[in-house]
Inverse folding.
């Protein structure tokens, strides 16, 4: 039935479009050209380097862009172009605070997979210190779907499982639109997140109604710009090649 | 003032979160775990190969997935792993029809840039045969902003200009959500498009209110699945490495 | 700071708009006129009667548009222009099934408020048999916020509490956009709900990620059109003046 | 085919839901209750009076809330509980500036319909001084559809024509979400508008990509809070019963 409706509409459409074309052909195309503003350049000379307008947060050398989430210096280990969770030193977060961003980040769970479920290669990328994209070894490792790699933790299950084997580098490309509140503090526009895991779309502009929480439901709370935070969940997860573009 | 409001809200938030933490700590975390459905696997063994659940539309060898938009065989030229617009043979479109997709496509405008504005390296990627992501040599080539490379033609200006030089390969990574109509044919949910140009975000889930038109304004018309179409605009634009994932 | 940015942008805007006006003034206004399609008429001769294109689901006389949610005839009581939950006979649902709708419905909780929290004047309006707008006596009656009158049950807290006293008629004006799934069954566009309670906005196009559930988290499941269902929660809640417009 | 898919999915759904019910039944319902924040009260004692948290912009008596859009005092005529465009005195706008609002406004075009198309009973309600909901006598009066009563001028055609006869009072109930820009001035979230015309839904959360313009296409420009403005288009259109709630 629905199909029939679409067929009929489609026929109607063709007829209508042709009818439209007639009146359209008489229209001047100039009034629908928009010449300003002219988009600024964001050069991207290769697929492996950050674009020219990116802020590089980690280029393999040092933690100069990071502090400990507990205060003080970031204490994760830097070696061979990667930084690695130093167990029990706490998460680390960027010195800068961000609103709307495009974020590229690469991560790797330990090649010797020990533990099960949430206890295997667990870490996390927190946008604005609140909204977690889960990092986990989800290669043949069962856990709750809204807590596996790529999940917006306990809010959105990834569309597919694009996980690579432990020990292999993986990537997240994230578009984050910060939540917008009215002056009264009401959440008017939720945060929205789009995520590609290893180049595969796993979230398409999903609404995030509040901070990621382990227990209970998220509750929206007004806030401004905030840092990007990487979680210390006790596993030796590594990160590299981190850059962000402010939108 | 707004800043002050945010600061105050932020303070309130910290206090409230801490208060929340108290009641939260007593909650059982299990009821917010979701174990099913389990996301299916979409393996992505490397960054240069299509994911395992992709439909390859062009792998450099032949036009077996394509027909001419005018009917009959696709007549574009295939050589050296690329296919190139054969002037005046018309556009080509996929044999398959698609709804919601993730699309990867690479393109290159002629290395000898001749012509100006819309007359330099012009082609286009049409989603569902209606919604055009503009292909154009926009490297140091002035034209109207809503008609330059990456524009949702005459509907959305790209956020930045991420164009490479003519003769260099460029990429689009596109997430397309098809428009949804009510049974009465009313547009209930517009098409939404997210586009990365050479890895740089240029459209973030922008609404597309109707088919791309040269003259006048777009008018929404109900339709079902439809092909991906590449435009013959008279310039020898090349394409390669085209794949799509149905969402 | 943000304020300053806005002030500066605002100044820039004024300058730019004036600049724009110059080039705009030369443009022909005709090409941005759209003459078709012509919207059909939906006459609304008064504020107390349904519009001319509405389907009246209850006009105070009988339950001819309804069946029991358990199967068989609807067994609620009709008297004095209202229909009232007949305890333990189960919910009732419309014979027709709906997709996207505008729904008007009036309801009244018993004037003698007995019980507390969820046990006082509890019923519910389910869109598509799955998505509940809570009906409850929330006049000076504490309960969890995501379960009070007007809540999208356990998914969205109403923006304000617009409840009237028990025994008074109240209204919901609801705009419901049905969820859209891809052919693979993936939720591509969540259901969206806008609700006015007694004329006051309490939800503005909030996403509903899955069916309302008492325990655990909602899980999206693909479905087609479905009925409007009114819940029997054991309290003698009354309804009247119910109409719906298909969008 | 799609229908079949939905039927199959529906069967799967029933099975799955029942399966879900089993594990769900074991879950504690408490962790998905949210007790705070408690929504504040917005009392709405009757359907004809503004809610208790509304700002009354015109109650039939004077123009104390308004100024001329040209500067200086508002010069429209107040009589019999209505205010009427005083030709050539210019539009009027509120002294207050607004962000996100729910707006109720009533309007009436002259009972003697003179002129045709855009020249019959023309005025307009501008949100944030930029985004126009068209006011026009569109009762049996042909004009371009994106310029008739209720149109988001030259951006969105109303879903239906809910117009009453000239000389009769009509209402708009509008929900307006202000556009959100990034700190760089990029439009991150467009303005969204929902409109009921005489109680009939004519726009459901439609995106407004830039200010309403007579010529050419709208171009988004960052701005902060701004007034509500009523247009003087030379016709003696009247307004009454105007109130707004800040969201």
């Amino acid at each position: 039935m629905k199909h029939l409706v679409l067929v009929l509409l489609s026929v109607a459409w063709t007829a209508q479009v042709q009818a439209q074309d007639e009146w359209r052909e008489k229209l001047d195309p100039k009034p629908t050209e928009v010449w300003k503003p002219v988009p600024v350049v964001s050069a991207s000379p290769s697929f492996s380097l950050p674009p020219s307008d990116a802020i590089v947060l980690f280029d393999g050398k040092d933690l100069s862009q990071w502090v400990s989430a507990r205060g003080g210096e970031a204490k994760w280990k830097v070696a061979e172009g990667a930084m690695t969770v130093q167990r029990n030193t706490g998460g680390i977060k960027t010195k800068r605070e961000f609103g709307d961003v495009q974020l590229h980040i690469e991560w790797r769970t330990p090649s010797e997979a020990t533990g099960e479920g949430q206890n295997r290669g667990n870490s996390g990328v927190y946008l604005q210190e609140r909204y977690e994209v889960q990092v986990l070894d989800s290669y043949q490792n069962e856990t709750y779907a809204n807590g596996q790699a790529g999940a917006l933790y306990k809010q959105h299950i990834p569309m597919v499982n694009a996980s690579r084997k432990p020990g292999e580098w993986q990537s997240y490309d994230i578009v984050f639109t910060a939540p917008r509140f009215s002056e009264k503090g009401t959440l008017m526009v939720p945060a929205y997140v789009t995520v590609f895991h290893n180049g595969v779309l796993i979230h398409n502009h999903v609404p995030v109604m509040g901070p990621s929480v382990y227990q209970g439901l998220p509750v929206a709370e007004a806030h401004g710009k905030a840092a990007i935070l990487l979680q210390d969940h006790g596993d030796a997860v590594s990160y590299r090649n981190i850059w962000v573009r402010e939108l």
Observations:
- Chain A touches chain D through 24 residues (CB under 8 Å).
- The helical segments of chain A are 2-25.
- Confidence is low (pLDDT under 50) at residues 1-19 of chain A.
